[in-house]
Amino acid sequence: MDFLYTYESLKLEFPLTDPEKAKFVILGVPFDGTTSFKPGARFGPTLIRHATLNLESYILDYDVDIAEFPIADIGDIAVVAGDPRKTADRVRETIEELKRVNPDALPILLGGEHSQTLGAVEALKPASYVVFDAHLDLRNSYEDNPYSHACVARRISELGIKEALFGIRSGTKEEVEFAEENGIRWVHARDYSFDSFVDLVESLPEPVYLSVDIDVFDASMVPDTGTPEAGGLSFWDVVEAIEWLTANKRIAGFDIMEVAGTELGGVTALTAAKLMFYFIGAMGKKML
Ligand SMILES: [Mn+2]
């Protein structure tokens, strides 16, 4: 089927399934209209798809081949340049359209700015939002834009969705106070452990939307992102959290955001692609 706001783009090399029948449905959001430091997030989805060419679809430690799972790729959102709210509306409408034709579809968003997660969350209406991010993203407005990437967790909290944030090492005093006043729990990257993750997410209501801002990883692993930060989490920290979450909670949707850059084959996109494979592997393993 054709989607109103998507266009054909470089797609995964896998044998792909029809989006009406797939379990995993990949959607790119090549938006970077509010990037404040390092541009190039508009190339994120293409860079991640390209990086998958370097990866085996067989996941060694799971003994599963994700190419055997029903995966669809519906292309990229046609963005409204410079307008994160209108672009997020298109993300929302596209995912709503997808869920109408395939209620079992699990959307996987590839970004693109983190601002676009809002559209996916609005469409999927999860009870909880779990995010791996270097930044709190709890500002009320940033550079006069309430739909900036720096405000996305705030906008999502205003929808009445419970939040837990991990790997944080950047925020303002106002954001910390907002989190305190609104019962938003977060774990600093220095204090992060698997136990700290389970402690916070165990009691969260389902379904859960899981968002990974690629800048949660140490800046040495992910140089090509809008706002890199030193002192981040390791790859296996996030994989282990994904494994626990997919085994123990119903997942409404998943995204990997803020991949940027202009060169194919960069380590940032490779990290994102590998993480996507682990997510699909962990979810798919459960379905076998
Ligand atoms: Mn971030």
UniProtKB/TrEMBL annotation:
PROSITE patterns: ARGINASE_2 (PS51409). Mn(2+) binds at H114, D133, H135, D137, D213, D215. Binds 2 manganese ions per subunit. Keywords: Hydrolase, Manganese, Metal-binding. SUPFAM superfamilies: Arginase/deacetylase (SSF52768). GO terms for molecular function: agmatinase activity; metal ion binding. The keyword Hydrolase applies. InterPro entries: Agmatinase-rel (IPR005925), Ureohydrolase (IPR006035), Ureohydrolase_dom_sf (IPR023696). GO terms for biological process: putrescine biosynthetic process from arginine, via agmatine. Its cofactor is Mn(2+). NCBIfam families: agmatinase. Belongs to the arginase family. Agmatinase subfamily. This is Agmatinase. It comes from Thermococcus guaymasensis DSM 11113.
